[in-house]
Each structure stands twice: as structure tokens, then as C-alpha cells.
Design a protein that fits this description.
Blueprint (H helix, E strand, L loop, with lengths): L7 H30 L5 H16 L15 H23 L4 H7 L3 H12 L7 H20 L8 H23 L6 H10 L2 H10 L2 H5 L3 H31 L2 H5 L5 H11 L6 H20 L1
Helix pairs in contact: 1-4, 1-11, 1-13, 2-3, 2-8, 2-9, 2-11, 3-7, 3-8, 4-13, 5-6, 5-7, 6-7, 6-14, 8-11
Length: about 300
Amino acid sequence: MPENNVPKSTQAKIWQLFILLVLGITWGSSFILMKQGMKGFEPIEVAVIRLVFAFIVIFPFLIPEIKKIPRDKYIWLALAGWVGNGIPAFLFALGISKIDSSLGGIINSTTPIFTLIVGVSFFGLTFKRSALIGVLIGLCGAIYLIASGYNGGGQSNFVYALFPLLGSILYGFSNNIIKFKLKDLKPAVITSGAFTALMPVLLPTFFMLQIPQKAALDDVHFTAFMFCALLGMFGTSLAVLVYNYLIKTSSIIFAASVTYIIPVFAMAWGFLLGEQITIHYFIGLAIIVCGLWIVNRAK
């Protein structure tokens, strides 16, 4: 037992909860950063800038470890990169272009539910039967949000609300890939390897879209570019690195529970920047959180 008389297991749990809070704040802010980036760039460009800057920050972690990665892990790193980062970045950017950032943050809170569904369906994850009730309740909350979202005011749109939902489903696959297929690799290797797998496509795209030239056009474009870069450096690369560490040192359901916290900060930023927060958001969030609570109790 350490000198402060706090058991190591308790210290570890407190540390994990602290990490969860920091991730919630960071990712809760990412939706409004996407909105700010779209003041100068198209959604696809926002996603490209985000991912390229995430790669720039995280790639140095891969250099000393690259020769140690088993070849049979390459395909799983590529899948983790595209399923857990690449495709969702475009889906969320497209969704946020037409819906409120607050709504996007709330829909993202379904990730633990899809993590459980995918884990049970494809990775042999076991769970108590009562967790099924939580999954169904959480899905009902997501369906309610999407069905009522386009009537809720602001910029909400039914079709575009489906994009972040699909992104959350893909996060469910990525969480399980990291936990079950890449468990022998360091979090930094997983994160840097995953983003590196995106670059053969995204680096040429970055220049083909003439993003550097657009960033230099005027103050509006430059400011939007910096918001996207900030999102990539902190809200994507470093946050994903910490998240991967959390997945490896706790349960995937606990790690995915960061989405309890994300909507709180997403809604706060949205409110401060003039988005209309409707009663539907609170009802949908309450239903999803209820479902997540049951899932976590049953795991």
C-alpha cells in the first residue's frame, strides 16, 4: 500500500476517471471546432486537415517502434485507422455541416452501445442479459433524437443526423479491434500506426484540394484552418492516444463511457455560440444515459 494509504487499485481507478473527464472535455469541444472550421472550408476539407495534423503530431511516436510491429498486425492497424479515425472524421464533418454541434455530441454518446453490440456479434465479448435492456433503451434514445432532430430547430436535419450515428457504429468496431486484435501493441504504436495508414490517401488529397493556398487567402480562411489544425493535434491525435491507453488498461465499455461526458460540453459550447438547445436534446440524452448506465451496471 502506498504512503498515502490509498490502495493502488483505487489510485488507478481515480486516474482512469480523471482521464475520462479530460477526454470528455476535449472531445466535447471537437464538434464546435468542426463548426468553426467550416466557416472557411468544406466538410471534406475539414476532415482532411484534421487527420493530416493528427498524423503530423503522432507520427514521431511510430519511428522508433516501426520495426517491432509484427506483420500480421498491419491489417488491423489499417482497419483501426480507417474505421476508427478516417471514415468517422468525414461522417461527423458531413453531419455537423447540417446539424447542430450539440446534437452531434449527443448522438456520439451511443458509442458504448455499439461497442457492446459489435463486441458480442463479432469478437466473442460476453455480457449479462440485462445489458440487452440497456442497449435497447440507448438505441431508442438515438432514434428519438434523429426522428425529432429536424423538428427541433437550429440547423438539424434528419438525413445528416444519420452520419454521426454511422460514425459511432464504426467507433464500436474500432474499440473492439484495439482491445482484441491489437492488445499486444503500445497505445502510442496503435495510434501512430493507425493514422499513418491513412496518409497514402489523405496527404495527396490535402494538396490536391489546395488547402494550404486556401488557408492563406484571408483571415477568415486562416482562422478556420487553425481551428481544424487544433482539432487534429489535440482533439484527434493526442486524445486518441490517451483513449487507446484507457482501452488497454480498463474495459472497452468503461473507456467508451467517455461519451457520457461529451454531450455535456458539446451542448455547453453550442449554447455559448448561439445554437438552439431544445427539449428534445435533453430527453434524448436522458434516454441514452439511462441505457448506458444499465449497460455499465450489467457488464
